[in-house]
Amino acid sequence: MNNIDNIIQHLKGSNDYIVTSHISPDGDNIGSTLGIYYALKKLGKNVFYVIDDNTPQNLKFLVEDVEILTSKEFELEGYCVIALDCGDKNRICLSDTLINNAKHLTCIDHHASNDYYGNLNYIDADASSTCELVYNLLVRLEQIEQIDIIDEVIATALYTGLVTDTGNFAYSSTHPSSLEMGKELLLKGAKRDTIIQRVFQSNPYNYYKILGEALNTLDIVQNKIASICITKEMLKRNSISFNDVDGITSYTRDIENVEVGILLKEKKENEVKVSLRSKQYVDVSLIAQSFNGGGHVRAAGCTIYDSIENAKQQVLEAVLKTI
User: Fold this and answer.
1) How many helices (H) and strands (E) does the chain have?
2) Up-side HSE of residue 126: CA atoms within 13 Å toward CB?
3) Long-range contacts of range 238-241, CB-CB < 8 Å, 24 or more positions apart?
4) ∠ CA 277-283-285 to the nearest 5 degrees?
5) For residue range 73-83, what is the model confidence (pLDDT) as tens digits?
6) Which of 16, 43, 225, 239 is least enclosed by beta carbons within 10 angstroms?
7) Domain spans of the chain?
8) Cα(31)–Cα(128) distance, rounded to whole angstroms?
9) In angstroms, what is the C-alpha Rg of the chain?
10) CA distances in angstroms from 264 to 22, 111, 212, 261, 308, listed in the order given
């Protein structure tokens, strides 16, 4: 059950919090997590940013002043966990020990596949981003407490998540409320120019080297399905990290007549992350769910524990059944 006021009472009622998100951090992941992180600090709470993964290069500007811990580095007891933008409890990027030993788990998320795994949940699959949900929560907190919470730092974090999850307001998930939120965040001082430059206009040279190699693997099936494969050898050869090539996914979708785009990234032997995108009518979240993944109607993902060749074949067969 969604109840913002109950979550606000919980945020006020405890002292020690872990904020975290899903594996393979992205803009909405980091933006929403930082929004809650800084809000809790303003409430005088002990808050720790804990995640067992690396921040993508183009988003590091957001966390320059934040101490990010791994599960092994966190030693406190009696803490509460707030999981943001994570549609599946199994994808929370913390150790099982930290998750299971938490005295309370709150989930704030916008994935349709979310099964309300938290003790408290704020889930809205129609929201443009988890950052939009955090924005709603913080606006309500400001109303209740009669204090200013959203400052330039929080506005910048939330605006980053908003523009990355809406494709800079181009995706179908963009609603009037998203544009209104964007306006309000800009009025609060969100550093729009910095966000656009760092997120969309600062890809390293190696990104374009691997992009060229990746495009050589482009395969189009029945003029409606496009796929690109990135192997671990390609990542190593081009000296670029696993989390820094997700932007290549759009190249599979943005082809004339293509309805479904697929990016397959080999993390290690027999472990392949699959990103799925669609344009108009295919619900890729259902395809992802068939491989124990999840996501949204137009953007979803899963992990397949097989060779990248076999993973590609399995996903293609699943998409062909849907098409």
Assistant:
1) 12, 12
2) 3
3) 238/206, 238/209, 238/210, 238/213, 239/206, 240/204, 240/206, 240/207, 240/209, 240/210, 241/54, 241/56, 241/57
4) 75
5) 999 999 999 99
6) 239
7) 4-199, 206-322
8) 13
9) 19
10) 18, 21, 15, 10, 7
- Using CA atoms, how far apart are residues 116 and 63, in angstroms rounded to an integer? 28
Beta bridge partners of 104: 80
DSSP 55: P
What is the predicted pLDDT for the residue at 2? 63
Supply the DSSP string of 150-172, one letter for each residue. Answer: --HHHHHHHHHHHHHHTTTTTST
User: What are the start-end ranges of the E strands in 86-218?
Assistant: 104-109, 120-123
The confidence band for 3, taking pLDDT boundaries of 50, 70 and 90, is confident
Burial of residue 161, with CB atoms counted within 10 A of its CB: 0-12 exposed, 13-18 middle, 19 or more buried: buried
Is residue 319 over pLDDT 80?
A: yes
CA atoms of 132 and 128, how far apart (whole Å): 7
The single residue listed with the structure tokens 């998930």 is: 173
Topology of the domain covering 206-322: Diaminopimelate Epimerase; Chain A, domain 1 (3.10.310)
Could you give the angle at the alpha carbon of 7 between the alpha carbons of 6 and 13, nearest 5°?
90
Q: How far apart are the first and last CA of the chain?
A: 34
Q: What is the predicted pLDDT for the residue at 1? A: 52
The matching CATH number, chosen from 3.30.499.10, 3.90.1640.10, 3.40.50.300, 3.30.70.890, for 4-199 is 3.90.1640.10
pLDDT tier at 316, thresholds 50, 70, 90:
very high
pLDDT in the model for residue 140: 97
Query: Bridge-partner residues for 123, per DSSP?
Result: 109
**Kind of pairing, strands 68-69 and 46-50?**
parallel
SS3 content of the chain, % helix, strand, coil (to 5): 45, 20, 35
Torsion of CA 149, 60, 84, 148, to 10 degrees: 0
Largest CA distance in the chain: 58
